[in-house]
Design brief:
With 342 residues, this protein is mostly helical. It contains 15 helices and two strands. It has two domains: 41-96, no CATH class; 133-335, Orthogonal Bundle (Cytochrome p450), CATH 1.10.630.10. The protein has helices at 4-34, 51-59, 64-73, 95-103, 115-121, 133-148, 154-157, 161-176, 185-202, 207-224, 235-266, 272-275, 278-284, 295-326, 328-335; strands spanning 78-83, 86-92. A two-stranded antiparallel ribbon has the order 1-2. A hairpin with a 2-residue loop joins β1 (78-83) and β2 (86-92). The longest helix has 32 residues, at 235-266. The radius of gyration is 26 Å and the shape is globular. Residues 1-9 and 17-30 have low confidence and may be disordered.
């Protein structure tokens, strides 16, 4: 028996090595076949891909280096990578890429979000179980765009100038002026644009409620743009929980608003100030198939709009203030109420 044991162990070791070699060879050949027609690049680690590299670049204050390094390594116009749990991701770089993307939306380019985004924001059960999350998002994007297309015209947006002006004045007087010696514009701009979005989209005017929403949205965004690991303690898990809380609050607001609109309709009250906002529009407007969205679907769309404007609008405002500070002659013209054309 003592003589057989080394022989048996050798056979097991040889078999294991052979099996691992075959498995490695299989996946290598499979990956090679799958990437023959893909742009140059690499997918990094399993599951997380190159997400960690992107996050580390951001923590160092230079997220753009993630792209610059890969443009140098692979291609200055197009390369592939894997981020946030998605194995198939391609980056287009340069003016020609922008032209291609913006001129081929829907035709050759589809809306895409990381897998973590789907976990956080897809709450409704698809009508067709065979539809993937990406297919659902694409269909819902088309449907929602059709619903709000007319609402976002310049004539409709003019109705909100008074609200924008009042919120801006309050923020400058109560939030910006007291911190003028140590003002972080980016953070204050984010608070301003978020409160404005809550006012316009949900009619939430209570500052404490807005602050609660903003705190939860910060956790949601941190989780969406994190490693795609969903278990207690991870950023994604916190994002999912916070998104659920936000959704419940927004659904409650929508139901209350719906009751108010129904009462106005019963009383033949056609006050335009209470019926022209986006929430009323979504509640009373059907899509091209005559279907109305329910409260949860509307809540998902509102959350999407809040997320979409959370960083973009505040970043734009921050850079406007930055350049006005750097170019006093432009600032003076704006201060006088003139539009500066350079």
């Amino acid at each position: 028996m003592d003589l057989l044991l080394p022989f048996i162990l050798s056979i097991l070791l040889l078999s294991t090595s052979l099996a691992l070699s075959l498995i490695f060879s299989f996946f290598t050949n499979k990956q090679h076949k799958c990437t023959q027609n893909l742009p140059p690049g690499k997918t990094g680690w399993p599951v997380i891909g190159e997400t960690l590299d992107l996050i580390l670049s951001g923590l160092k204050g230079h997220p753009e280096r993630f792209l610059q390094e890969r443009m140098r390594q692979h291609s200055s116009t197009i390369f592939r990578t894997s981020l946030f749990g998605s194995k198939k991701m391609v980056f287009f770089c340069g003016p020609s890429a922008n032209k291609f993307l913006f001129s081929n939306e829907i035709k050759h380019v589809a809306t895409w979000w990381p897998r973590s985004f789907n976990k956080v924001f897809l709450s409704a059960t698809p009508a067709d179980p065979s539809h993937t999350p990406d297919m659902i998002i694409m269909e819902e994007s088309k449907r929602f765009r059709h619903l709000i297309l007319g609402f976002l015209k310049l004539e409709a947006l003019q109705n909100y100038i008074e609200i924008m002006d009042s919120v801006a004045k309050r923020h400058i007087e109560e939030e910006w002026a007291p911190k003028i010696d140590n003002l972080v514009v980016a953070q204050q701009a984010k608070l301003y644009t978020f409160e404005l979005a809550c006012r316009i989209l949900l009619r939430v005017t209570d500052p404490s409620k807005v602050a609660q929403f903003e705190d939860r949205f910060g956790n949601v965004l941190a989780g969406v743009m994190s490693l795609p690991l969903d278990f207690p303690g991870t950023a994604l898990n916190r994002a999912i929980k916070n998104a659920d809380f936000i959704r419940q609050d927004i659904v409650a607001i929508i139901k209350k608003r719906k009751m108010s609109l129904d009462e106005q309709q019963q009383n033949n009250n056609k006050d335009s100030s209470t019926t022209r906002d986006l929430l009323a529009h979504l509640l009373h407007t059907a899509d091209e198939n005559g279907k109305f969205m329910n409260e949860v679907e509307i809540a998902d769309k509102i959350i999407g709009l809040l997320i979409a404007g959370y960083d973009t609008a505040s970043s734009t405002l921050t850079f406007i203030l930055k350049y006005l500070a750097e170019y006093p002659h432009a600032y003076n013209e704006v201060f006088k109420g003139n539009i500066y054309n350079g």
